[in-house]
Amino acid sequence: MTADDDGTTPTAAASGGTPDATTPPDRRRITLTGISSRAWEHPADRGALTALRELRGFDDVVRTFFGMWNERAFRLSYLASAIRVDHRQYPRVHRLLAEAATALDVPELPELFVTQSPVLGAQAIGLDKPFIVVNTACVQQLDDAELRTLLGHELGHVRSGHAVYQTILTILTRWAANLSWLPVGAIALRAIIAAMLEWWRKAELSGDRAGLLAGQDPAAAQRLLMKLAGGGDLSQIDTAAFLEQAAEYDGGGDLRDSLHKFRMTAWSTHPVPVARAAALRQWIDSGGYAQVLAGDYPRRADDPAASVTEEIKAAAQAYREEFGRSQDPLVGLLRRLGSGAADVGEWASGAAGRARSWMGAASSTGRPGGRRS
Q1: 309 neighbors 233 (Cβ within 8 angstroms)
Q2: What confidence tens digit (pLDDT) does each residue in 173-187 have?
Q3: N-term to C-term CA, the chain
Q4: How far apart are CA 263 and CA 256, in angstroms?
Q5: Which of helix, strand or coil describes residue 366?
Q6: What is the DSSP letter of 132?
Q7: Is the dihedral of CA 210, 215, 216, 219 positive or negative?
Q8: Which end of the chain is more exposed for a tag (fewer CB within 10 A), N or C?
Q9: Helix axes 218-230 and 273-285, enclosed angle (nearest 10)
Q10: Residue 96: Cβ within 10 Å count
Q11: 78 neighbors 112 (Cβ within 8 angstroms)
Q12: What is the rounded distance in angstroms from the CA atom of residue 329 to the CA atom of residue 177?
């Protein structure tokens, strides 16, 4: 395998998980003291989360409406059929989780389970006390640096509250699907679901940034995404060629390809691996990653003062920049027709504001003395 962008030459990991030559020693990983999750959140994700966090009663309202959902049942199912990680069971995984948590200054480790699956994957689950689930394929096919990055990705979800809000949105999506017979119509409901999934995809980009900050190894972060795309053996895969795939996916083909890409991603919770790799590379190249490592990042202590208006504006600006940067044929056509990135930013900002208004109404309905519907 050829050298990665930072000049290191990764070695395919053995199933036992022995650290390879690219794994930074502990002294090279900086503890990001007091770091706020806003430091790694994609602007579109951060705007939505800031609005949700301001609605203090919203989570309680959703739990009341959907009391049938039982978080304890989810945890019990993994307690019964998976391996709970600690210093005695999967001690290597436990150590890497602790190292990732130290880098992100996470004071309390969430529970971690390893479940039997041949597919590379992991998830954060839960409302009150989120926990992490990692597939056995990750333990077997990822080296220490890659697995540390993956665990940091899931810790990022937990710290951002994604596990809470993704669970809520999953429940709301199922509820909306069951009410498709209402006069509002299936098209409107599908538009709501599509907007929820768009946020979820941006939350995955946030998780990728958190994983990079946890492992502080850009080469390992790229290798992880390559393995998610093509399996565990990287001996015949080249990082530069993989990024070329990402560029071709973004800008290759014609309008037919643009429509196919829309169909592929509109109803997906995750961006495709090549798009994730390109987005992470763009964040590194923009200087955002180095800025955080240098200590220039928002602190948790300042989270209550975060401005919803400013975050929504930042989300709109991020969409404008993404629109202007994209080489997709359909996006290029819209630019030539004069639709403009500003329209996209205004749409994103307006959509975020409408979502916040809707959630505010739902929250006030559920509070004592609140408006009844």
Answers
A1: no
A2: 666 666 656 655 556
A3: 62
A4: 11
A5: helix
A6: E
A7: negative
A8: C
A9: 170
A10: 28
A11: no
A12: 33
Per-residue confidence (pLDDT) for residue 296, from 0 to 100 = 96
Judged by DSSP in three states, 134 sits in strand
Query: What does the pLDDT look like over 13-47, one tens digit per residue?
Result: 333 344 444 444 555 899 999 999 999 998 888 87
Asked whether 35 and 299 are in contact (CB, 8 A), the reply is yes
Strands (E), the chain: 83-84, 112-115, 122-125, 131-135
Whose CA is closest to 75, among 116, 121, 133, 122?
A: 133
In sequence order, the 6+-apart residues with CB closer than 8 A to the CB of 249 are 261, 272, 274, 275
Cβ atoms of 206 and 233 within 8 Å: the answer is: no
Is residue 196 helix, strand or coil?
Answer: helix
Q: What is the mean pLDDT of residues 55-62?
A: 62
Contact 170, 251 (CB under 8 A): no
The helix or strand, by DSSP H or E, that contains position 125, with its residue range, turns out to be strand 122-125
Helices (H), 216-307: 218-230, 239-251, 255-265, 273-285, 288-293
SS3 assignment, position 135: strand
106: its two tokens: 């996470």
Q: Return the amino acid letter for 276.
A: R
Query: Burial of 65 by CB count in 10 Å (0-12 exposed, 13-18 middle, 19+ buried)?
Result: middle
Catalytic residue list? 154
